[in-house]
Task: inverse folding
């Protein structure tokens, strides 16, 4: 642990930590380009270490949940080569990470149209989910083939189906009922959403759940994200006054 990390950690107020942090992990391609690599996927490879750092930090601080935006519904429009590299990195991560997840009591779950993932990837995902299902610490939620609009659309379809089965009537429709039909209904809404790489947009991330999230933007490119950057975001969050429409 370097000095700045230790100092930042000392400033963290455990009582004012977010329960759920979500991260838009962006900037891998630019990171690779900046380093002179012709292949932007070098950035995806380097980004894995940052995923580990974020997960470790979240577990260490006893956050309830960490959602990582790893692959969007829209990312399927990328070149085939890049998609297949991302999928193989994902599969490897899901396998290699099991000991670390077990050691740190982390439960892995996923959000998104995961049936669109390649079968071998999906199989590994299900396996890692099953192995870690009994863990009671941090919930690591990977957003895979995830889109906020797709999620709300899928929730609508599920609600309509239950309505046709006579289980739901129009007067039963409430925000709470919609929330219960999202991909991970058990998770609290994100308190803090971090986006790296200096882009200021949601890119279709957690549209419903993020209604009152605090946003933190940093120019740091995802492969350079580390514990220090995470702690800086948390300290910034602790200074915010959340009013939820009230007057504070
Ligand atoms: C984020 O990095 C990773 C994914 C979206 C899968 P990018 O690949 O979007 O990197 P930039 O934004 O092009 O730098
Ligand atoms: C958002 O990043 C999706 C992920 C981080 C997985 P993108 O790089 O796909 O977003 P845009 O296209 O710049 O909005
Ligand atoms: Mg990007």
Result:
């Amino acid at each position: 642990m370097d000095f700045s990390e230790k100092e930042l950690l000392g400033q963290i107020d455990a009582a004012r930590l977010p329960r759920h942090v979500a991260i838009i992990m962006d900037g891998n391609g630019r990171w690779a380009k900046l380093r002179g690599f012709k292949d932007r996927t070098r950035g995806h490879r380097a980004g894995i270490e940052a995923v580990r750092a974020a997960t470790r930090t979240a577990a260490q601080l006893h956050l309830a949940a960490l959602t990582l935006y790893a692959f969007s519904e829209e990312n399927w429009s990328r070149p085939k080569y890049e998609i297949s590299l991302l999928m193989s990195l994902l599969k490897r991560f899901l396998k290699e990470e099991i000991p670390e997840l077990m050691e740190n009591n982390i439960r892995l779950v996923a959000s998104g149209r995961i049936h669109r993932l390649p079968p071998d990837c999906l199989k590994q995902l299900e396996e890692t989910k099953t192995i870690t299902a009994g863990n009671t610490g941090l919930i690591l939620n990977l957003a895979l083939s995830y889109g906020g609009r797709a999620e709300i659309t899928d929730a609508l379809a599920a609600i309509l189906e239950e309505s046709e089965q006579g289980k739901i009537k129009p007067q039963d429709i409430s925000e709470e009922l919609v929330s219960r039909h999202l991909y991970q209904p058990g998770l609290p809404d994100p308190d803090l959403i971090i986006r790296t790489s200096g882009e200021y947009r949601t890119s279709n991330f957690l549209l419903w759940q993020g209604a009152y999230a605090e946003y933190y933007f940093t120019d740091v490119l995802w492969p350079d994200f580390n514990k220090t950057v995470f702690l800086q975001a948390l300290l910034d969050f602790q200074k915010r006054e959340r009013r939820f429409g009230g007057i504070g």
The longest strand covers residues 65-72.
